[in-house]
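User: We ran a pulldown and think these components assemble together. Before we commit to crystallization trials, I'd like a predicted model of the whole complex to look at. Sequences follow.
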Amino acid sequence: MAESSALPLVILAEQFAKLPGIGMKTAQRLAYHVMSMSREDAKQFADAIISAKDNVGCCKVCQNLTEFEVCPICSSERRDRTQICVVESPKDVTAFERTNEYEGTYHVLHGLLSPVDGINADDLKIKELLRRIGTDEVREVIMATNPTVEGEATAMYIARLLKPMGIKVTRLAFGIPVGGHLEYADEVTLFKALENRSEM
Amino acid sequence: MAESSALPLVILAEQFAKLPGIGMKTAQRLAYHVMSMSREDAKQFADAIISAKDNVGCCKVCQNLTEFEVCPICSSERRDRTQICVVESPKDVTAFERTNEYEGTYHVLHGLLSPVDGINADDLKIKELLRRIGTDEVREVIMATNPTVEGEATAMYIARLLKPMGIKVTRLAFGIPVGGHLEYADEVTLFKALENRSEM
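Assistant: Here's a predicted model for the assembly, 400 residues in total across the polymer chains.
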């Protein structure tokens, strides 16, 4: 093995392997792919990494990743500032934006409460959320964390903080995914779907 | 969508999406991961790309990727220069080296003949192989291209060039993979396994 390896290639493969969901074999394949790219393309790739790291920060209102001080959603005239959708990560904002249906604003927690992993309220952007509610005329906070143990716990924790402030706190509906099959749904999902049934 | 996007992040995701086997969703996930890396780690990643591109070239003997003029395998005292294993790509060399069994040298073609895609003999490192055979005391060339149409055609083409030079040309054995199941083997593999059966 050692005899065949070009060291910078091994280092590059190790860098790829640090990315989530990329094993050593895929990492090696990607490293070889970089070798087949033009010098210019490789440079663009490397520059994109540095540029994203250097030019993207957190929106000072909603904490979503942005290249501006205040992100385009928070500074948009068209968004409803009375609604805040609280999510775990920037990816979730992208998912909601893809629906083209939500007109309110967001708040990105950058994580979920997880005492086991030593992540508690101070590690999340909860202070920033409370500060927004103190200043903006917020009427509803939609808890849109994932339906996992940590997601539920975080939603409950924040709800308990907000309710005394007279804020309406709601939670995303859980049920059968559209296009899904009943037979593949797990029991908890099926139970939630039954519990949250609506009149036709 | 556009409103939520931090441009440098979109550019980085597009760069990741250019890699083989990485779709837009995974690319986005990787771009977000880069955001969670430290500045130093991101720098190391970017540098590894440039360094691999700048410092790795082809071994002037076997054409495998290496940071040296002559790769460690070709310059090793312990390797048998009378045997050359001809493979499609550097990945295949790594695969053979992992077996820890092969003692000979390699020759990397950097592709396979594919007239449909406009890849013909001049695009592969075949001249370089013939030159080696002219100078080194090569006795056997093992054709280790993949058992695909292009792999077979390339093996046949090179074999036809080498045989008149008095070189023994061999082909990898095809058969049931070790640990595989007969019932899952396709007909061609099963036929090959039958054809190449050995006495016990």
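Chain B has two domains: 7-55, 58-199. That may be worth checking against your pulldown data before setting up trials.

User: Thanks, that helps.
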